[in-house]
Amino acid sequence: MSVQDQLQKLLTSLMQLGWRRLTALGLIGLAVFAITGLGGYYLSRPSMETLYAGLDRQDVSGIGAALTEAGIPFDVSSDGTTVLVKYNQTSPARMLLAEKGLPHSANAGYELYDKLGSLGLTSFMQDVTRVRAMEGELARTIQTMNGIRAARVHIVLPDEGSFRRAKQPPSASVMIRSDTIADGRSAEAIRHLVAAAVPGMTVDLVTVLNTDGTLLSTDNSSADAAPGRMITLEKTVSKDIQEDVRKTLTPYLGLHNFQVTVATKLNTDNRQTNETIYNPDSRVERSTRVIKENQTNQNNTSQAPTTVANNLPAGGTGSNPDSKVSSTDNQKKEELTNYELSSKVVTTVSGGYAIDHLSLAVLINKAALAAAASQKGGPSIEAQIADIEQVVVSASGFNKARGDSIKVLAVDFSDAGHDLDPVPSPGITDILLRQSGTAINAATVLIVAILLILFGIRPLTRLLAPPVAQEAEMPMIEPLADFAALPTSFGDDDDMSMPTFGMESEPNLIEDVTNKPKRSPQRRLEQMVEFDEMQAATILKQWVSQGSAA
Fold this sequence. Notes:
Helix content is 41%, strand content 23%. The protein has helices at residues 3-17, 19-44, 57-70, 90-99, 123-143, 187-197, 226-253, 308-311, 366-374, 381-396, 428-434, 436-464, 509-515, 521-531, 533-549; strands at 48-52, 74-76, 83-86, 148-156, 171-178, 206-210, 215-217, 258-267, 271-301, 324-350, 354-365, 405-411. Helix 2 runs antiparallel to helix 12 (436-464), helix 7 (226-253) crosses helix 10 and helix 14 (521-531) crosses helix 15. The two termini are 43 Å apart.
């Protein structure tokens, strides 16, 4: 039989069903196809996981643009506040967004006033909204600073009481998350920014700390904060020196062939030095005093000496040749000159810090040094260690006179070069556990389809089947009182095993499918009569004769 004949026979069988059965079959087919399609679409959808929730529209648009640029498929919830990605794309997507600084802080600024109504707003609600708006705007401004990834600002505004003598000043605290080691350098700028933005606030009432609990900046007059500032300053200096050494050694040794540790001890004592310097070469005449003294003395002695001649009477009237005359002339001159010498007074006040001691430890992968030494003309390991030590000394500001210490040691690294290896793929157990939800969904859809077929389609086909003819309407069967007791003809599972007398069997395929589940002997007999009355009568006569003979 050709395909065309089979199609013609199928079309003839369909036309014999009638419009009611054809409509029912069409509806059933559409229902089956719809359920199967919906189940297939639901099961074929990828498993989505929440990436971020509670986002605003600006963050959602920024995240969508970043994920689209990176080629990561995503979905947005119906309310537009949640972004979903595939199950295995969650970690890469979060790393990508963290690199781009997304999502931003959820703090809202002055747009909070856009959501407030003009009626029913109490003074307390107005004060709270004002504080929230100020905090959100300050957090947004701080996040625009270089290196600041996230920030939260808490402002405390005092209540203005009528019976208070002293006015309480406002205060603020700021928590930041940065991607650099120089977050302490931005703390002072953040303090001044917050103090200038809030009326009545001073810089010493603003506290800045980072996400790991380290106090970056607080009131300088507080004695309790001095140890914390000392530790923070030492960590910052150590990290700066360590980063300088790392940048210097990376081109020479590679990223994973060395480790650097720096310990710094600082001195933050305040020092004051007074120094006076005189310059004798630079002088100015201030005053001059001159004293002159002249003195003249004359002495005459006329007494004659006691002699024999002088005692004689004849010689008493003569001159005295032995008389003496003396004169003294003294001159004295004093000159005093006062000069003003140039002097310089130097007063030095130091409130910073100085490095008292610096310790450096550098561990080098011995395998990398051996590989460089094995090359033709390559330096030995000892020579490389000496060169590295000189480089570290220059990069770190090492001072031997200060008592600094350095140690460079070549050791075998345990897992050198495997830090950036790709993560191994999940095992079969992990895959089954991850797909357990999909399996449960598939099993649920399958069970629903089976229940629909059992309790929906089958009862519907029974209702659409023609009513079974009653025994009163078939007078030809009345003589057969023992017809149901015949074991050779109409069993429930027997397929009409009867003589055909050479006629060619042409079963109705659609009726056979729809009526085969429960086909009674009366229904089979009715089909035989409808197919060929003469043949049915001949068969019945044969059965009656066989029953009489038995």
